[in-house]
Amino acid sequence: MILEGWGRYPRLVSEVHDCATPAAVTEATRHLSGVIARGNGRSYGDAALGDAATLMCRGLGRMKSFDPETRLLTVEGGAMLSDILDAFVPRGYFPPVVPGTKFVTVGGMIASDVHGKNHHRDGGFGAHVANFKLVLPDGGVLTCSRDENSELFFATIGGMGLTGVIIEASFHLNRIETGWISQETVVARDLGEALAALQAVNDTSYSVAWIDCLSRGASLGRSLIFAGEHATREQLTARLPAADAFPPQKKAKLALPLDFPAWALNRASVSLFNEAYFRAGARKSAAPSLVHWNPYFFPLDGIGQWNRLYGKSGFLQHQCVVPDNNALSVLGEILQRFADSGKGSFLAVLKKLGSGTGLLSFPAPGYTLALDLPVTDDVFPLLEEIDRTVVDAGGRLYLAKDARQSRQTFEAGYPQLPEFRDLRRSIGAGHRFGSRLATRLGI
Amino acid sequence: MTRTGKSVLLLGATSDIGRATALTYAQAGWDVQLAGRNLEAVQREADDIGTQSGATVSVHRLDILDSEQFEDFLAGLPALPDTVVCAVGELGEQPRAEKDVEHARIVMRTNFEGPALLLGLLAERFAARGSGAIVGISSVAGDRGRASNYVYGAAKAGFTAFLSGLRNRLARAGVRVVTIKPGFVRTRMTAGMKLPGPLTAEPKEVAAAIFAAAEAKTRRDVIYVRGIWWPLMTVIRSIPEPLFKKLRL
User: pTM, whole model, 2 decimals?
Assistant: First the structure.
């Protein structure tokens, strides 16, 4: 079967095995080699494409238990975040960390140690995982936590599925008073103001900046910064007295029924969009507003299959993190290169990060910048150049988004890689678990 | 979530339609009784539904081919349910059913004999109580026998006729009988088949249609989940037999 990630590049052939029960996972693991578990296929590049075979784990999606006293939720590895939100937001609970899409599985969230808009304060999803059950290379099942098999625990968080298959996981939900977010919008006229604004809202739970990456010159890096907190009952009754305290998830109203032609995105069309977006955002910046949790956390989920926007050849997402100290000059240089190239991403995302949890976790103290680029021949050398800037600054790229970085870039960015490789060797995972990403990067 | 104090019994609870229906009822505040052959698999669904909804869920072993155990099965339920939904089904393989009597027998008994006998027993109890809803998931395949699946289709035709008779008998006894014809549904049963998008429903859609028909008291007794199936099957039913027999369907 031909498989692809969310970016639709690369597209590769892999044998697939439906693993809808824990028993099916252990069985498949025992008999196959070069396999990787795949959840909902939302990693962008080749992380969920098996070297030889891919275990399709969406059917492994049941929830197991929830204790309202401790707020501990236990689910199977293929459980979808969107189902968890459906079930628990109406009851006044919210996951400790959510990434930018709700169409991901819990196993995938652990394997990528996903971060959300609260990473600067609360860390990534891995920081909130109490324990999980891992299917090892021999088909045996091991429970891992900070106290039990902790080496495997920290290797598996952010380990891209290369230590085993996560068939079950437990984590605590947070209580929320409402399903609304009290949001403040700050307008930053350039990159310096954007970084300062993110720093200024460091104590706020959620923060993220959307950068217009086509703006140049004095307005290079102009941004809108969105800071948010879960709204209290009091705030909701004061501002939206008629609103449902826990509004349900909305279905995607729009869906792209077909691939956009490649020429649809160009400097002119994207500039127009960005300009309109900024004017709308700036108008809202005067007063805090209440926003429904769904569009706040998952704005792009409102457009089904938005990955078709970039045409048939697919797109790349480039997401790097660079340390605090010279973030302004490094990010400025990167943005300048993108702006000069005119490779149109609608908006780039800028966010302050804290530390990661696992050996190969992406987050590191500093700022992360993510932007999308349609796949074209000339985009690869551009990204190579940008990678050199990232590496020189002591930064790295996010494996869950990656489809093309070089081994040198990867090795320079992940100092704990030798430890990870040793552990993989010691448990016999080397030949058993393998993805195209692992082979490409020599993990 | 406010609990209604009502309960629903799901026969064939581990099927994709069965579990989607159970979850729909649980999220509407109903207690749920799940029945199936493999108790471990039923328990997995029960944990899922209970965790997702906070509903009270009980599990019950049921072999639809073992009618001698039906009385004990019913006696083991925590309460006589307000609604029963039968999602038991076995597609089988038509070419095999043509040669292998045992295989054909299992398809016929699983789709017709077992469900009809058990729903018959429940109908007696509902009639005595003077209330209840019986939902049978039949199939468009039962609307007319076709070369490609007439063993399954014949069993479903029998089930459709049984439900129709039950409905006729109980109409004045306060018991509602609903026949659901889902058409194509994206489930394990149809995994690997090429299904035409507009004719294909998701299990959640079928569940919503069942809940609406059984509990919202719409007037319709026989439900095609996707409306387009009704004109389509009307046309297929009306083709004269001399012509029909020459078609490849």
Answer: 0.92
